[in-house]
Amino acid sequence: ESALLIENGNFDAWRPLVVVRTDHEMQVSRLASRNGLLRADAEDRIRSQMPVDEKAALADYVIDNSGEIADAAARFDVVYAALLERAALAE
Questions:
Q1: What number of other Cβ atoms are within 10 A of residue 7's Cβ?
Q2: How does pLDDT run across 51-90, given as a tens digit for each residue?
Q3: What are the residues whose beta carbons fall under 8 Å from the beta carbon of 46, sequence distance 6 or more?
């Protein structure tokens, strides 16, 4: 959802914004596998989108999902705790 909000320019109304990113090779591999695409088709689809580095630069929080799942899970825990704290302060 965040990716579409960023690409459409409507993300400021939805802050804080979390972007989950991975390296290009893993992104292509996962997309091709999940959607049953040829590698070239997955590459084309990714190229048609805003680069993930640009999306990450606009985010309030970034979760890197290109390494071990435990690393991404640990980062998620940090981000989730920050979001809970932010929500409590807003009350």
A1: 13
A2: 999 999 999 999 999 999 999 999 999 999 999 999 998 8
A3: 24, 27, 28, 31
Cα–Cα distance between 29 and 47 in angstroms, integer? 14
> What's the Cα-to-Cα distance from 5 to each of 15, 17, 33, 59, rounded to whole Å?
11, 9, 25, 11
What average pLDDT does the structure give for the chain? 92
Q: How far, in Å, are 3, 19, 20 from residue 25 at the CA level?
A: 18, 18, 15
Whole-structure pTM value: 0.82
Residues 6+ away with beta carbon under 8 Å from 61: 16, 17, 18, 19, 79, 82, 83
Say if CB 85 and CB 77 are below 8 A apart.
no
